[in-house]
UniProtKB/TrEMBL annotation, chains A, B, C, D:
Catalytic activity: 5-O-(1-carboxyvinyl)-3-phosphoshikimate = chorismate + phosphate
Gene: aroC
GO biological process: amino acid biosynthetic process; aromatic amino acid family biosynthetic process; chorismate biosynthetic process
GO annotations of cellular component type: cytosol
Lineage: Archaea, Methanobacteriati, Methanobacteriota, Methanomada group, Methanobacteria
Entry keyword set: Amino-acid biosynthesis, Aromatic amino acid biosynthesis, FAD, Flavoprotein, FMN, Lyase, NADP
UniProt organism field: Methanobrevibacter thaueri
Name by which UniProt lists this protein: Chorismate synthase
Length: 364, 364, 364, 364
């Protein structure tokens, strides 16, 4: 078993890039949440490629159908199934990859482990399968909204260009205004230029995506092995192309002392807060009521059109490879949607697990 | 449920810093593994404090007893229970922390979530409970050794002092020779000095711990939600004080292009390898046969003797706090043992899950 | 989470009687199993109603579509999704059941627990949702066949009419020849008559279904809480209308002594067998190599056209109810298919868990 | 993994009959439940052998120690560990069973599956390991008591002697007055005589144990695979010696019609009840507010002193076996305590899962 995540709010994902369909079942969403296909569709549209020069020009008409779980406009506690039928996927010949794994792609692992590997468009290793994450995330976000929790993911670095910190609402507005989904309008322009120049070279570039969740109550997370930071790290690291996850100050803690970065508590207008948020809202594996801040390192798309060294696994000999086609020169803008969805899934799960949301019925 | 991890090789941990005992049950270890209390004791001794100036001078006589799971010197497939009875733990008065959470400690979350919080020595939030991890890790390492898999964790950064890269065997040797458990003998000296100077100031300092696992076969990890990188990220982030996890190049991928860091495949002496290992041995969530390399960011010990701002939760007012006592000025050396154990647990679990180790009996 | 079962071979089921679709995801089926939609369709056809006088005359054109998990005619290790779109389901008005739970149906629980209950045709409480079980069971049976394991379920009692014991192959043949799916051709006729007479009276009748699995190796089952008998009891009791489960002699053990029913071991043609099989193939929670025999008690269909007492939950007053429509006068014949599927799912799961079937790839 | 059960209220059991200790960890009990070792001890004392002629004369001084999870007399949300050190267990030589499985005992499965089998006193297959169930059950019962839920298990049949039905309070009283733990004082005497006569013959006898739980709210159980009846069936069937489980009318439903046994709803003093309780309090996999009634078939103790046929697995030849020692001539009285505990564990788990008990803190 490997295609499910979450204990109470649980996603089971299915489908391959060029198979008949992709989708997900969301089990454990409480009854009486208003939900329409449109709620999911609008999140899917954000990750859809072909909307600007910085993503692949491939067009994917990702139209969601809900097969179960809604009764009279509201969830009814039964599993919610969302499916998108794949269309026009067999336009290209992928047979050159049958025995030749693409460098820094998952192909080799799939071949070794399962033997029968659907190499068309990366099969189930394709980024396209994150549609399942987004279906789950859209429902999770709607559920969290009933508790006033909001989440935003945005690009904070592409190559060596870094965004300046912005407040939550500015980020939410700005990411819809530039194709990079960067919260800093100035940096966004430079990032776009860099991506387009790499695209021209037949190359790709990496970056960093930050996610912020606000209004999360204190006490989410189950020590010592289902901690909130551990569960977030897992789901975020599970996103293809992610090679690092940090919470709060992250790797910067290494070069600091306790007296410099400890988050002092204070009573602020009758509420407990911390003066700084170097912990990124999580201490001891539990939320402390401050904004939850994570960052993920996203590697450059491994599909590049430059010639690369690989092997022929059947003949067991070295072989050159060129990956033609229309690839994302930078995957970060689309990863923001998946990071936001993944964070929402974990938070929704823990809100139920910790008793803040009733496990079966919102009207209780 | 929150104190278990692993699907097939599963640790359930228990106990609090000042309670009667701490320990763990390891369920799912196949039968016929030779195992003695000594195998576990020698790992516990590595994380034991009081062995040098860079750790707390507290003495803990952590003597393991095995209560179940061994028959005639070998595991018998039943749960292995290891327990350490706590001794002399009630020497100190912790009552000043009853309503006053220590900055950047988990206290506040425990208080909010459970109400009845054992604040003595951090209760179950104490670093002492990683004894459970080490019990599990010791057994996992012994199990992995039957498959030729070896793991080492070492300190690669303290404050702004960085170790130079060393080969696997050098690291293994060097970490036993310096109290910092650093693989680079030169850097180790500087690190020790830095830690001692922070200790003198009543302060603490952070660092980075790297873990390398060799001889791991290709194909470990279950896409898309029980990937090997996700599971490693989760267990490593779950270690107290860890604020970041990276695999391979980690956050450095952001500033690179695909052509710079893609790992090209090659046939090398009849075996598939990659020319570089920027992926850290994991691509597409599965191992590729190369060494698995992770790094974690460890924050400075939040317990410092300098005066800090906090609050009184009963009176709901601000309050100063000073944390007296004998704390680790830098937790990194001891975290190496926990990181090594945690990595071993995940690898053992996935070796069974992926069919490389028989689930119930090594002699099959 | 409530719509998944199995650890390694895992079914996640979805859909409601009158919703857009019903189906299931099967996660954890190893790669390289030959599988077609036809393999599943032929099992679904066995549970399809409308094929004789003893089942409901409702016609359901249950045509399976496979949305994922098959590549070039074989499983590829990724989740297999089967879906059946519901057709012509809204022909009837169920609104009288909105606030009036049907006696001995699950309605009341659904109403109390989830609030928003799809009362059309029983919603997700309908027998129709066992299509998910059958999808999973069809794949499990195909997988077990590679290990020579075969399963058959047959009706052994309807009302007070009992079938005489028959051997495995006779049962397999006979159940296809009579609409009751009884292995004893003589009893089958009497059973059919009894069912038709109860149908005439607007009533329904109960019965007992037996399941036999042969060629199961010794050692399946994980003491002490994932035992094979416990897991079978759970999945069988989870079938709607089942009120009892027994293994081997079952409740008859109460009136016997140890010396009467202990199963003596013997070496038989170089193989270990038992002289009797009162244990039904499971001792100490593990299979012992003998045929695995279970029986389930199936209650009479609670939907009867006779007038019954119920309540109006909105007005909180008593109310009479008559359940019109075309109901199965006896659910047992169709339950055989679900019992067979359920048994197959548990055996497939345990064959993988116990290391008899490789977890990811049949060709290993 | 096989020694854990429960999702939110989760027991992990360990230990073998003649190993150093037996016990259990209970993870997921909410904080602020008053709990002492005495609460557990008094339940353990009920299952303790040697208290009358109908159980084994073996003396077991089963003294519980709590190693974790209690702070200032109350649970604190962390795992509760109970352990009993085994004493004087090596008084007997069991080596004749090393290669010779006892008929209808689990030995053969353990030997085949794990290879290294602790055959002393049945190892982990011994009835002694149900101490873990009772530790979990004692805590579960205390937790359920806060919600007014009470459970009683009693012997309703031994051999062919059947108890007459009694009301809940009479049963509770009577079972403490006779060694058979039968709720019907008259039948109890006959049962005791029957057991003693079988004991004299070196034989054993089976029986039936019924469990009743009252004041369980409607809506427990998670369709379709974590139903309350399925979860009860599983944990009860997992008890050694149990060969059948039924809910409500159980196997008697087979010979009835819907009109005879459907449970009509009624409004009774402003509350919803059913006129009959043939469903045993569970319909559609969910509780309906009526008493939850289950019965289990308990086989005669397979250890009998009469000579039996078995085999030598090393020499692969037939061999006679006589099981000397002091065995329970009827296990039913002691099984009542395990059935009660098992039922309590499942109900506690589902009370938390369904949101009736807060998952982390009773004071919320």
């Amino acid at each position: 078993m490997s295609n499910s995540i979450g204990e109470k709010f649980r996603i089971t994902s299915f489908g391959a890039s060029h198979g008949p369909a992709v989708g997900a079942i969301v089990d454990g969403c409480p009854a009486n949440l208003e939900l329409t296909a449109e709620d999911i569709q609008k999140e899917l549209d954000k990750r859809k490629p072909g909307t600007s020069g910085v993503t692949t020009p491939r067009k994917e008409a990702d139209e969601i159908q809900i097969l179960s779980g809604i009764f009279e406009g509201k969830t009814d506690g039964t599993p919610i199934t969302g499916v998108i039928f794949n269309k026009n996927q067999h336009s290209k010949d992928y047979s050159m990859f049958k025995n030749t794994p693409r460098p820094s792609h998952g192909d080799y692992g799939w071949m070794m482990k399962y033997g029968n590997y659907d190499y068309n468009g990366g099969g189930r290793g394709s980024g396209r399968i994150t549609i399942g994450h987004v279906i789950g995330g859209a429902i999770a976000k709607k559920l969290l909204k009933t508790q006033n929790i909001e989440i935003v993911s945005h690009v904070v670095q592409i190559g060596d260009i870094k965004a300046k910190p912005q407040d939550f609402n500015t980020i939410k507005e700005n990411i819809e205004k530039n194709p990079v989904r960067c919260g800093d309008a100035d940096a966004a322009g430079e990032m776009e230029e860099l991506i387009l120049s790499k695209k021209e070279e037949g190359d790709s570039v990496g970056g960093i995506v930050e996610t912020i969740a606000v209004n999360v109550p204190a006490g989410l997370g189950e020590p010592v092995f289902d901690r909130l930071d551990g569960d977030l790290a897992r789901i975020l690291m599970n996103i293809g192309a992610v090679k690092g996850v940090e919470i709060g100050l992250g790797f910067d803690v290494a070069a600091h002392t306790g007296s410099e970065i400890n988050d002092a508590y204070q009573i602020d207008d009758g509420k407990v807060t911390t003066k700084t948020n170097n912990s990124g809202g999580i201490v001891g594996g539990m939320s402390n009521g401050m904004p939850i801040v994570s960052r993920i390192a996203v590697k450059p798309t491994p599909s590049i059109s430059k010639c690369q060294d690989s092997i022929d696994l059947e003949k067991m000999e070295n072989k050159k490879i060129e990956i033609k086609g229309r690839h994302d020169p930078c995957i970060c803008p689309r990863v923001t949607v998946v990071a936001e969805s993944s964070t929402a899934i974990i938070l929704a799960d823990h809100m139920i697990r910790s008793g803040f949301i009733h496990p079966s019925n919102l009207e209780f």
